[in-house]
Write a structure and sequence with these properties.
The protein is of the alpha/beta class. It has one domain: Spore Coat Polysaccharide Biosynthesis Protein SpsA, Chain A. 25% of the residues lie in helices and 23% in strands. It has eight helices and twelve strands.
Length: 300
C-alpha cells in the first residue's frame, strides 16, 4: 500500500550514499530526487528508475528568487529551501493535494508499537499518516519524528501536536507558505503555521531513522557546519522569531531553543464529512520475523 501523495528528496553532494532514496526503494515506494544541474549526471547514474527513482533538475530561477532572510546573497550555499519550493510547485502540477519532502540522510523508517521500534518494508505507514492528516481541515504541516527522539524507555504518544516538523514533512499544497531562510527553514515554516492558529502533527507511531547533524558528508554539513559551526544557523532562528526563540549552548555547540507552549490551544478541526471505522486498520502491516545482515537489510 503505497502513499497517495508524491515524495521528493532534496539532495546535494550525496549521489553515492543516497540514504533516503535507498530507504524508499526498500519500501518499494516511488520518489523524485531534486538536484542541482551540475550534479544531475552523477545522480542519474546512481538512480535506478526500475526501483521507482526519478531525478529532477532544480531550475536556476528557484535559487535566484529564494529568500535567504539575510544580505549574503550568493556568497555561500542557500541551503535546501529552494529545492523544497520547487518540489512544492512540481507536486501542484501533478494535481496532488499534499506532498512529502524529505532530507537525503535517512537510512530507514520504523513503526513504534508497545515501545518497540520495528523497521518497516512497505509504504503502508506513510499512507496511514496521510489518511490521518486528511481527517482534519487545519493541518497544513505534518511529518515523522526522528527515531532517536522517541526513546523506548519512555511511554510515547502516537503523535505530538503543535511542535516543529523536521526533515520528513507532509505539506498541504494549498497552504499560503513557501520555504525561506538560509538556515532553520523547517523551524521557521513550522512557527509560521502555528502563529496563524493552525496545527502541526508530529507522528511518533511512525519514525524516520535520520542521521544526526554533521554525521554525513555533503548537504549542509559541507555547505555550512564544517566551516562555520551552528551559531549562524541558530542566530537566524532567533532573529526571525525573537519572541519565541533564544540562543543556548548545549552538547558543545550552539542551538536555538523555541518555546512552543503558546500553541497548546491550537485545536484540530475534523472534516464535517469525516466517518471513522471503529475497527482497527493496520493498513496490511504485519509483524514478521526475518534475519538481517549487518546493515540491517533483509537477508534474502
Amino acid at each position: 500500500m503505497n502513499p497517495k501523495y508524491p515524495i521528493y528528496i532534496v539532495s546535494k553532494g550525496r549521489w553515492e550514499s543516497r540514504l533516503t532514496a535507498k530507504a524508499l526503494e526498500n519500501l518499494k515506494v516511488p520518489y523524485y530526487i531534486v538536484v542541482e544541474e551540475s550534479e544531475y549526471e552523477k545522480y542519474l547514474k546512481e538512480t535506478d528508475p526500475k526501483k521507482g527513482g526519478k531525478v529532477l533538475i532544480l531550475p536556476q530561477k528557484y535559487l535566484d528568487e529564494y529568500d535567504t532572510c539575510d544580505d549574503l546573497g550568493n556568497t555561500k550555499s542557500k541551503g535546501p529551501g529552494a529545492a523544497r519550493n520547487f518540489s512544492w510547485e512540481h507536486s501542484i502540477t501533478l494535481k496532488a493535494k499534499r506532498h512529502w519532502v524529505m532530507d537525503d540522510n535517512m537510512g530507514s523508517f520504523c513503526r513504534l508499537n508497545r515501545n518497540r521500534k520495528i523497521r518497516v518494508y512497505s509504504g503502508s505507514m506513510l499512507r496511514a499518516a496521510e489518511d490521518f492528516v486528511d481527517r482534519y481541515t487545519n493541518v497544513p504541516l505534518a511529518g515523522l519524528n526522528y527515531r532517536f527522539f522517541a526513546p523506548e524507555r519512555d511511554e510515547q504518544p502516537p503523535y505530538r501536536l503543535n511542535t516543529r516538523i523536521y526533515s520528513c514533512l507532509l505539506i498541504e499544497n494549498s497552504a499560503p507558505y513557501r520555504w525561506r531562510g538560509r538556515y532553520n527553514e523547517d523551524t521557521d515554516i513550522s512557527l509560521r503555521v502555528l502563529k496563524d492558529g493552525l496545527c502541526t502533527i508530529l507522528f511518533q507511531a511512525f519514525l524516520c531513522d535520520k542521521l544526526g547533524t554533521q554525521k554525513l558528508k555533503g548537504g549542509n554539513t559541507e555547505a555550512f557546519y564544517a566551516e562555520e559551526g551552528t551559531y549562524n544557523k541558530s542566530k537566524m532562528q532567533v532573529d526571525l522569531h525573537p519572541e519565541l526563540s533564544k540562543l543556548v549552548w548545549r552538547f558543545g555547540r550552539w542551538h536555538h531553543y523555541v518555546d512552543y507552549r503558546p500553541f497548546r490551544n491550537n485545536k484540530l478541526i475534523k472534516r464535517k464529512d469525516l466517518k471513522i471505522d471503529k475497527e482497527v486498520d493496520n493498513y496490511d502491516m504485519k509483524l514478521v520475523n526475518f534475519k538481517t545482515n549487518r546493515k540491517g537489510e533483509k537477508d534474502e
